[in-house]
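Tutorial handout. Part one gives the primary structure; part two gives the three-dimensional structure as tokens.
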Amino acid sequence: MKIATVVGARPQFIKCAPVSRELRRTAIEILIHTGQHYDGNMSQVFFDELSIPAPDYHLGVGSGSHGAQTGEMLKRIERVLLQEQPDYVLVYGDTNSTLAGALAAAKLRLPVAHVEAGLRSFNRKMPEEINRVVSDHLSSLLFCPTETAVENLTREGITVGVKLVGDVMYDALLYNLQLAAERSTILTRLQLQPKAYFLATVHRAENTNDAGRMQAIVAALRQISTILPVVWPVHPRTRPLLLAHHLLGDSPEALRLIDPASYLDMLLLEKEAQTILTDSGGVQKEACWLGVPCVTLREETEWTETVQAGWNTLAGVDPGRILAAVTRETNPRPHNLHGDGRTAGRIVRALHEN
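Part two.
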């Protein structure tokens, strides 16, 4: 069996690592890197740390508007698929690389398998939501992390090929958490004490493309930094907006902007933070798994279980709501959040059986 795996962004590298390990024991995998994330801190370091094999094809698409980027990916992925003729095209998550891989395969009548299928934020203003919905409706195998995801697909009339497998990101976290504790020196380098800082990440287009929203987020982070230092690994998409609108001119010393963190560094930063503030779906889950309170800088989440379990608070970008969420006493309940560390094996078995 030959599987063509399409990845291009940081979260996809994390998700594909455990699946690739399992897949290459019993099948041929052709790894296609679209180049959506091309900065070394957002791409190569993940291949190195997670021991992901070098891509068989690096398409080098780079950045661009959603339409231009997705169109260029579609054209280049199609060429590879025509040459390789895989049995399945495997896509992950909700990025433009996901959509382009699914579209290219579907137009060539190659079956698509979607890891993290069925997620819905029900906010069509988010490009990620469009990517999820379209990719699901093009897929023959839909690997769902949660019962909620299965229910979402059922409501949309998708019932064939749906597999409840759990969350492959939990496989990655379990595999790498001890490695992070042994190898990462990020706390020493930044002179941080465990549970004595906040961690912030901002990368969603709804925030990074809106100067007003970013101004509100920065105002909130400034306020919060008077309580404890705020460590903010700045996504390449975020920095130009901050600079263009002079949003950081008089930032306090306790608001500490750093370059994007590697996966192992990020795991340790998350584990030892007092609270995490983020607009990332993956970070919301990791916070829950690590038992760290999370404040989501959005009005909705595709990971509703994190909110129901009490680990996650939706705060939008209003500084008052964010400050209240950070300082609120919470009593979350233990919750393993749809993971047992064996999701990659279930995905690979399903690919062989179907």
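Part three, for discussion. The longest strand covers residues 2-7. Residues 92 and 115 are 5 Å apart (CA to CA).
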